[in-house]
Design goal:
Blueprint: E1 10-18, H1 32-49, E2 59-70, E3 79-87, E4 93-102, E5 109-121, E6 126-127, H2 132-138
């Protein structure tokens, strides 16, 4: 199964993540799980940049699915330019997308992935309508 990033999406955040030696696997390239970690790091830093931190006693964002397409391997040493995009806000969800490229090779996508985010009431464990402030950001 392969998911493609949509043409219409909004860039909301980008950051550089250094590849650590410990991120490599026995095949001498970035471990597949680490790509998801890089997408997570970018998503969390985006949340912080908009002034949102998860609060288990209140409302917040959860991932309801995630994927990653691997195009070219990434290897140590190097830095990964990770870009995060958003699209398709619904009642309680929106889509996030991420691309990963070597910082020294801008424009060459090595991997791309995404996740559907749902806004929830953590104590009740039920979805809620996206708050207006967040809908403005992801629209």
């Amino acid at each position: 199964m392969k998911f493609e990033l949509p043409q219409q999406k909004k860039l909301v955040y980008e950051m550089v993540i250094p590849i650590r030696w410990a991120d490599m696997d026995a095949m001498n390239h970035l471990n597949n799980g680490t790509y998801f970690r890089y997408l997570e790091i970018c998503r969390i830093e985006w949340m912080r940049s908009i002034g949102f931190l998860p609060d288990p006693s209140g409302d917040g964002m959860v991932i309801v699915n995630a994927f990653c397409n691997f195009y070219q391997q990434l290897e140590y040493p190097g830095n990964v330019l990770t870009k995060m995009y958003v699209s398709d806000p619904g009642r309680a969800t929106f889509e996030t997308w991420g691309t990963m490229e070597r910082a020294e090779q801008p424009g060459v996508i090595h991997a791309a992935g995404g996740a559907t985010i749902m806004w929830v009431d953590f104590p009740k464990q039920k979805s809620k309508t996206l708050p207006d402030w967040l809908r403005q950001i992801v629209s």
